[in-house]
Amino acid sequence: MLFKKRKPDPAPEARPARRLPDFLGIGAQKAGTTWIHAQLSRHPGVWLPTEKELHYWDRLKDQGLDWYATFFQPAPAGSRAGEITPSYAILPDPVIAEIRAAIPDAKLIYSVRNPVERAWSSALMALARAEMTLADASDQWFIDHFMSHGSRARGDYEACLRAWLAHYPREAVEIVRFDDIAREPRAVLARLAGHLGLDPTPFAAIDDAALVERVNAGPGEVCPPHLAAFLAEYYAPKVRSMERFLGWDLRDWLEPRRG
């Protein structure tokens, strides 16, 4: 019997290097990550997969790093490749440790928003996914969603940051305030350019209309005052703790918002 001679494996130096992301957008959910993705995509030095959220580290790790790397292999040499998946903010410690081992020099982007507003926006998103309207949902439905593990974990920004900072140095994390995106979007992009080692000039060239365009915006319903008060009471201790943790003034997060 004749056997076809198997071709030898290519020498290690002949194999293409596995490309993993240079940066990760790790959240928070409903805190401007889609805007960040859209604006970073405008920069010629940034390469992002077509699909914003890959969910590799929270859902698809069994596919393996080689599979994950295929998403970034098309990135041009010299570009900054990345992905943004908001649920990465609440990954457990062992998974964050895996990420640090696989991508030790990754830059991280974490956006934060008034947690009352974030929780309300998240609940509205869940309402739409359930094919319900505001008229269908009772106050208790909203409170149950606010108090769900997922919503509370995503709104506990300090806990999320502490989990990631247990593995990455503070200088690896750029924290973006949702309010700053609305007030000074160009300044936010300039900071992101510095964080990622990018030339900021292409960001400066984005026209005003594109810069302030709402991306993946929620339906816009205002949180009823009694539900906003419930959330404010729950999150007030966490906001004050985060003020101490970051040395930020977050008093505006504790003030009642008017529709």
Detailed description of the structure:
With 259 residues, this protein is of the alpha/beta class. The chain has one domain: 3-Layer(aba) Sandwich (Rossmann fold), CATH 3.40.50. The chain is built from 13 helices and 5 strands. The protein has a 5-stranded parallel beta sheet with strand order 2-3-1-4-5, with helices on both faces. Helix 5 packs across helix 13. It is globular, with a radius of gyration of 21 Å. The relative contact order is 0.16. The N terminus is likely disordered.
Order of helices and strands: EHEHHEHEHHHHEHHHHH
Question: Into which percentage range does the β-strand content fall?
Answer: 5-15%
Unreliable sequence segments: 1-12
Shape: globular
CATH architecture: 3-Layer(aba) Sandwich
CATH class, please? Alpha Beta
Report, as a whole number of angstroms, the end-to-end distance. 81 Å
Specify the CATH homologous superfamily: P-loop containing nucleotide triphosphate hydrolases
Reported for the largest beta sheet, the result is: 5 strands, parallel
Mean pLDDT: 91
Structural class: alpha/beta
What's the tally of helices? 13
How many domains? The number is 1
Q: Assembly type of the shown chains?
A: single chain
Total beta-strand segments: 5
CA gyration radius, whole angstroms: 21 Å
Widest sheet: strand ordering: 2-3-1-4-5
Residues in helices, as a percent range:
40-55%
